[in-house]
Each structure stands twice: as structure tokens, then as C-alpha cells.
User: Fold this.
Amino acid sequence: MNGRGDILARMSREDGEGVISADVSFGKIPGQQVRIPDRFWIPEMPADEIREWKTQLKSGYEFYLANTLPALKARFSRAGTS
Assistant:
């Protein structure tokens, strides 16, 4: 993206693996600046999708606390004693 938020280069899944690049100019952009939205980076969603997303986020966090975090603590506490 450039300083105005215009997409300069894009690849889709159908394009396969690759690299994209674009020429950009550094410095102040003339004209009105685009305001950063006061919301998540995801697009607007219907209320039922937002509720489902928050439910999944909560269950993922609970899984992390119950499973991943204890495993990481155990792994790194053993690594420090070797």
C-alpha cells in the first residue's frame, strides 16, 4: 500500500508462491490523511459473526492457559536445569 492506502501490488492464492514488490516514495503525502479506524483490522461483520468470533477467541485463550502455557513452562523450566 502507498501512503494513501492504495494497493500497489497483490497476489492471490491462485497465483501460487511468489514475491511482490512495488516502488514507493518516502516522505509526507500531500492531501488529506486517511484516519486509522478505531476498530479491529477485520472488516465489519454481522453481529452473529462477531459473537461467534469472540466465543472462539475465548475458547482458544482458555485452551492456551490449560494446555499450551503449562507445556511451555515445563519445557523451559527443564531447559534451564540442564
Q: What stands out?
A: Residues 44-82 form one domain.
